[in-house]
Amino acid sequence: MHGRIAPANVEWIAEAGQLIRSGALVAFPTETVYGLGADATNGEAVARVFDAKGRPAFNPLIVHVLDLEAAEAIGLFSPMARGLAQAFWPGPLTLVVPRRDEAGVSDLVSAGLPTIALRAPDHPVARALLSAAQRPIAAPSANRSGHVSATRAEHVSADLGDKAAVILDGGPTTRGLESTVLSLAGETPVLLRPGAIPAEAIEKVVGGALARLPPENGGVPTSPGQLQSHYAPRARLRLNASTWQPDDAVLSFGTVALHPARAMINLSPSSDLVEAAANLFAALRELDASGAETIAVTPISAHGLGEAINDRLERAAAPRG
Ligand code: TXA
Ligand code: MG
Predict the structure, then answer these.
(1) Which of 149, 135, 138, 108 is nearest to 276 (CA)?
(2) Are residues 46 and 184 in the same domain?
(3) 168: closest CA among 22, 4, 38, 45?
(4) Considering only Cβ atoms within 10 Å of each terminal Cβ, which end of the chain, N or C, has fewer?
């Protein structure tokens, strides 16, 4: 079955804005490629984006906003970050900056990282959708994992079927290349993904050469595990646990035995993987904060989103060097 392609007129944009607010997914054009959008403040909607993409791991998503003011409500902008936003927004430059936790953006959006990627798109339909939704919109490129990015509504439909409640058709995208991703989270700016804005144009504004990621994966961080600052709990994780010590913290899923524990969080008592994904990062942080030496994790089904959840837990459980 194919998703419904709708003309990007006033009526459909208003409808799409409501759909975003209700937690549904909307595919929409930007100047670069089509995005698969969800309300960035709704963890379950964001989990459905990962489910729709069929990606076996959580990759942090870009949050789309109207302007610098909206971006500054979500991330911390240094004078350099502000200068770059002023020079290139609206446009295909994504800035990775430290996140403000109080902004209410789901931590699944940034896959548990302390940073957040933000950009103001330069496309009338994307901007009208942001105005209609009145929410920051988290959106990866609207293609299945491993496929090329979609530059036409028909590509989105062929790739994602009915995973989006509606696909706003704004015609072919003009740039056809994803945004340039630049990290401003550290001391010096780092080019994380080459894209529609050439590095030289950015170097002119910052007044110096940009550092680049090591060339594995063509310089693209394909998972949070390859990003240096990803969240690793202090406690040791023990996976597939069926029992635990009273002093352990427990991360559970579905129906579990009620042995005493220092703290327990059930990711989804009804075994719903979307709900579990939405709760994952906050639960890890909270259990870590309980002071337990060990977090016992009960088995989590490996199908669908379970693959990404288990991937993240295996990374957290891996011995650290
Ligand atoms: O042009 C684009 O950027 C399109 C349109 C829809 O805006 N979006 C897009 O999203 O290409 P996606 O999810 O396919 O790529 C997002 C990139 C990934 O390389 C991801 O690793 C990086 O941005 N990214 C997102 N948040 C990050 C963070 N907190 N730290 C480092 N990298 C981040
Ligand atoms: Mg992509």
Answers:
(1) 108
(2) yes
(3) 4
(4) C
| 220 belongs to a structural domain | no
Domain final position from 212, 244, 265: 212
Mutate to test the pocket of ligand 1, among 97, 116, 181 (most ligand atoms within 8 A of CB): 181
Ligand nearest the Cα of residue 181 is: 1
- For every one of its 321 residues, what pLDDT tens digit does the chain have, with 9 covering 90 and above? 346 999 999 999 999 999 999 999 999 999 999 999 999 999 999 999 999 999 889 999 999 999 999 999 999 999 999 999 999 999 999 999 999 989 999 999 999 999 999 999 999 999 999 999 999 999 999 999 888 999 999 999 999 989 999 999 999 999 989 999 999 999 899 999 999 999 999 999 999 999 987 655 444 454 444 443 456 788 999 999 999 999 999 999 999 988 999 999 999 999 999 999 999 988 998 999 999 999 999 999 999 999 999 998 998 888 765
Write down which residue in 179, 212, 245 finishes a domain: 212
One domain for residues 184 and 91: yes
217 assigned to some structural domain:
no
Distance 72 CA to ligand 2 centre (A): 24
Q: Is the shortest distance between the CB of 173 and ligand 1 below 6 Å? A: no
Q: Whose CA is nearest to atom 6 of ligand 1?
A: 35
The pTM of the full predicted model, rounded to 2 decimals, is 0.90
> For residue 172, what are its two tokens?
């072919």
The answer to whether residues 244 and 174 belong to one domain is no
Q: Which of 131, 202, 129, 138 is nearest to 167 (CA)?
A: 129
| Cβ–ligand 1 contact at 53 (below 6 Å) | no
Q: Which ligand is nearest to the CA of 92?
A: 1
Statement to judge: residues 247 and 202 lie in one domain = no
Q: How many Å apart are CA 46 and CA 302, to the nearest integer?
A: 19
C-alpha span between 4 and 2 (Å, rounded): 6
Q: Which domain holds residue 72?
A: 5-212
Q: Are residues 177 and 247 in the same domain?
A: no
Q: Does some domain include residue 229?
A: no
